[in-house]
Amino acid sequence: ARHPVDVPVIAEHRERGDVKLHVSNISAHGFMVDDANSLGRGDRVVVRFPVIGRIEAFVIWIQDDRAGFQFERIIRYDDFMAMIDTLQPNPRLRKSR
User: Fold this and answer.
1) What is the C-alpha to C-alpha distance for residues 19 and 33, in angstroms, rounded to an integer?
2) Residue 44 backbone phi and psi in degrees, to 5
3) Are 54 and 46 in contact (CB under 8 A)?
4) What is the pLDDT at residue 37?
5) Do residues 69 and 31 lie in contact, with contact meaning Cβ atoms separated by under 8 Å?
6) How far does CA 5 lie from the centroid of its chain?
7) How many other CB atoms are there within 10 angstroms of residue 36's CB atom?
8) SS3 at position 39
9) Residue 96 — pLDDT band, cuts 50, 70, 90?
10) Secondary structure (H, E, C), 6-36
11) What was the pLDDT predicted at 63?
12) Rounded to 5 degrees, what are φ and ψ at 85?
């Protein structure tokens, strides 16, 4: 399930260096940004999220200014839920468990 979030991150790109991105939703498999004008399909980045720390992800789709990333590994359920609790302090935004 995708969880809406409002998270600015600094992604480490091998060729472009640090790239500022805005994550607008996230799941255990990946995330979507809404400001991907400097990225292309297949680009790889390393991002840092609360609880899970640094993780590599790659662009699997781009549409207009949005891009979908897939994590290089699936996040464990308990770690993912702890991360969501950190990223979504408003309990009304969290999906029921």
Assistant:
1) 12
2) -110, 140
3) yes
4) 80
5) yes
6) 9
7) 22
8) coil
9) low
10) EEEEEEEECCCEEEEEEEEEECCCEEEECCC
11) 94
12) -60, -35
